[in-house]
Each structure stands twice: as C-alpha cells, then as structure tokens.
Amino acid sequence: MFREVINTISPYIPGKPISEVKRELGLEKVIKLASNENPLGPSENVKKALMQNLDELAIYPDGNCTELKLKLSKKLGVKSSQILLGAGSDEITQFIAAVFINPGDNAIMAKPSFPRYETVTKVMGGVPIELPLKDFTHDLQAFYNNINERTKVIWICNPNNPTGTIVKRKELYDFIKSVPSHIAVVVDQAYKEYIDDPEYPDALEWLNEFENLIVLQTFSKIYGLAALRVGYAIASEDIIEKLNRVRPPFNVNHLAQIAAIFALEDEEHVKKAKELNKKSLEFFYKSFEEMGLPYIKSYGNFVMVDVKKDAVEVFKKLLLKGIIVRPGDIFGMPTYLRVTTGLESDNMGFIMALKEVL
C-alpha cells in the first residue's frame, strides 16, 4: 500500500508546546528554549497590521506574493523574478528536491544538520550522502570528494543547525566555484541576520556568478514570524521559474504576507532582537564556563552545551522544572543540549535549573 521509502523516513518530532507541558506536569510557568524562536516575537507594527487585515480572511491570498516580492527585491538588490516564497523555507526544500532529484540521484549534506534535507531527498527516491561534521562544521573537502555523476543537490546550512557554526567566506566561495554547474548548491541562511562577523559570507553576493546557486532565508527567526511560516529562495530566474512549477497555489497565506511586509520595514525591532541574542549568548558562555561545561560557539540564536551526561535524562529533569530544551540525541550528540536564547529572566531560569539538575 505504501512506497518502501516511506518506512525509512522518521517523522519530524516538534518540541513540546508550553500548553502541553503545563497540562501534563501541572505547572503554572514554563520556559521554552527549544525551537530557536525569537523571544521578542514580532514587532508591534506587525501586530497592528495583522489586526487591520482580519476582514480579508475570506479572500484568497495573492498567489504571486507580489508586494512582498517587491519589498524583498528592493532590500536584497535582486529582481522580483529571482525570488520564490514558501510556507517556511523548509517547504522550499521540498520544491528543490522535486525539481532536481530523480530516483537514484543523490544529494550531499552534513550530519548533523537541518533534517529536512535528508527527508525531502528520500521522498523523491534520492540517496542522501550524509557526511560528518569536522570541528562541528561542514567539511567541504569531504563534500567535494563525494560528488559523482548522480549528485544533483548539495545542501549547506550556514550557520549550521544544530551546531551554530559557519563556513567562512573564502572556503565557501572556493567550494561553490569547484562544483559542476549542473549541480544545485543550496546555501541555507536562516540565521544570517544575527551575524556581524566579516568572515561570514552572504551567498547572495555570488548569485550573478553562479547560475546553480540557491540561497534560502526566512522570516521565522529574527523577525519573529515562525507561526506564520514565511521563507524565501533567491536564485537565477531560470531556477525560480522551475521551482514555481511545483509550488502549490496560494502556499503563503494573506496574513503571513502582510506580516512579512511590515516586518521588513521595522529595522529597529531586528536590531533589538540581535542585541538581545548577543547578550544572551554571552551570558550562556560565561555560565557554562563557570560550570565547567564545554560548548560550541554559535552564530545563531541557540547554543549547544555538553552536559557530560545522558542529555535525554537531563532534558527530562529540566522538563519537570518547567524548562523545555532540545536533547542532542536526535542529532547524534547524546551528551549535548541545544538551548535557544531567550529573555534575560528565562535564560537565568534555565541556568539555575541546569545547575540543580547537574
């Protein structure tokens, strides 16, 4: 009855919602630091815009996302025809796999990295070539060594989720330049807006040079719109035209489009979220050092810390205290926790609970 490949795919297991944890454990307060969300949420301007558009819910959304594309086009310095919108950038990974991968083809990716790359490859009957990280980041030399005649897509998560590490400018440029032009190179920049490091490469700079380059970005992270699901791809007009052929109509809802348009205009809110994230990471680093816990320096809004014990057991004990984090066993890192940066009080609450648990 079912395709064989479906039995090889594990369903995505989302982090526990706050309401469920409260109900299950009888807790009044729960701190969620598990899903790399912006603790500030969307800006006030976004909230006002959403309220003003509630009367339009009976009307189908703009299937082309015309106004949002124009705003993005101006901000990014690309043509509107080089942009494709999706219900989160993870929906766009499905479009990419559908356009490029035939049964028996392969796609190269790091492990651990964003799990959707593996899933969408398998769904199309492709073979994921998962290569271990080197010093917690992508080993692009290993990527190059594994390219063969059936390679169709290369996935690079930069910064990488879950480790938070980056591939630096020269290394990424040289790698993309070495990849045969018939292979799609996807650079996922979901956390780009959090980064100031001059060594971090914005792959958008190379779009005109590499016709096989696809860049992914999102409104889910620093813009605080995770619930509305808005992500986008930037690539050559030819690639975007092909991706549009498999994109379902009206895939980005009306309120999501409105929210994204107003979020783009609110640079002050982005700046505030960025500053909060920087302070939160510094607080975590200092706390982990005082506790003697190794951690991986992160360029995102999360950090992985080695608790030197079974992370699942630590996760369960933290849950009893109303703290939700991500255990690293799902990433093949059984003694690590991935912790999202939160509000100052939430960060302190997590550290206090972690000290008690350990």
From TrEMBL:
Record pathway: Amino-acid biosynthesis; L-histidine biosynthesis; L-histidine from 5-phospho-alpha-D-ribose 1-diphosphate: step 7/9
Keywords noted in UniProt: Amino-acid biosynthesis, Aminotransferase, Histidine biosynthesis, Pyridoxal phosphate, Transferase
Organism domain of life: Bacteria
Entry EC number(s): 2.6.1.9
Residue(s) carrying N6-(pyridoxal phosphate)lysine: 221
Any Gene Ontology biological process: L-histidine biosynthetic process
The reaction(s) this protein catalyses: L-histidinol phosphate + 2-oxoglutarate = 3-(imidazol-4-yl)-2-oxopropyl phosphate + L-glutamate
Domain spans labelled Aminotransferase class I/classII large: 29-348
Keyword Nuclease applies: no
Gene3D superfamilies: Aspartate Aminotransferase, domain 1, Type I PLP-dependent aspartate aminotransferase-like (Major domain)
Pfam annotation, one family: Aminotran_1_2
Enzyme class: transferase
InterPro entries per record: Aminotransferase_I/II_large, HisP_aminotrans, HistidinolP_aminotransfase, PyrdxlP-dep_Trfase, PyrdxlP-dep_Trfase_major, PyrdxlP-dep_Trfase_small
Classification via HAMAP family: HisC_aminotrans_2 (MF_01023)
Subunit text: Homodimer.
UniProt family annotation: Belongs to the class-II pyridoxal-phosphate-dependent aminotransferase family. Histidinol-phosphate aminotransferase subfamily.
UniProt protein name: Histidinol-phosphate aminotransferase
